[in-house]
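ingest -> validate -> predict -> emit
validate: passed (alphabet ok, no gaps, 236 aa)
predict: started
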Amino acid sequence: MFFLLLLLMVASCGKMILNSRGSHARELKTFEKDDRQVVFIGMTHLGKPEFFQEVKEQVDSLRKDGYVFFKEGVGYELNTSDEARDTLRRKFRQLIGFSIGDYSDKRNKSLPKYFTNGDFIMQSDSLIGLRETDSLVDMTYNELINLHEDKFGEIRLTECDFETDFFESYDCKDGNALEKSFYVVDIARTEYLLKSILESNEKKIAIVYGAGHLKWLYPDMLKAGYTYKSKKLIFK
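emit:
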């Protein structure tokens, strides 16, 4: 996988940026089955420094208690050419409606304004105590685009897609996949995470993932025989 790993905002995570100390983002969610424990740390990828410090304290404590970590991060497959990366990035921009990268970067005019209007900082592994040796459990851009195109048809890049630089405001409205990222960004990645959890032999797993993914992970963990040990969740 290409070393530049980026975090993807699922729809429900974006709403949490303005309240990054909200309980949904910072309370540990615990699932148990037999002698296995799976803890979910819900992230918002933009937040106040104090939020990330609190997460780091949780990560450090769990690491001392013997947990292994599953983290997110989407990159390119090895040997993906520069041309192919450019195409994948433009297709992904059409899917989500803005250019991926550092969501606090005020130079990126494609980002929703509420991403860059505050004094938020971008999540990083070092900021929250994660390590390079922790398990990266996520899909690549190559896989996500292929999955979307297999299910919904090829993403057709338009003249506007090619003429608009990545950091410019993205006003292209003629793409056939415009803002249709829900399946690959939310559902497919959560299914990949679930499969990795169920296939793992580790007894104590801590998942550090976008908080919005819990909505999809929660019912499937219960179906897999896990008991939810925190307060019951009700999703709207």
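The beta strands are 29-33, 36-43, 46-47, 68-71, 121-122, 135-136, 204-210, 227-228.
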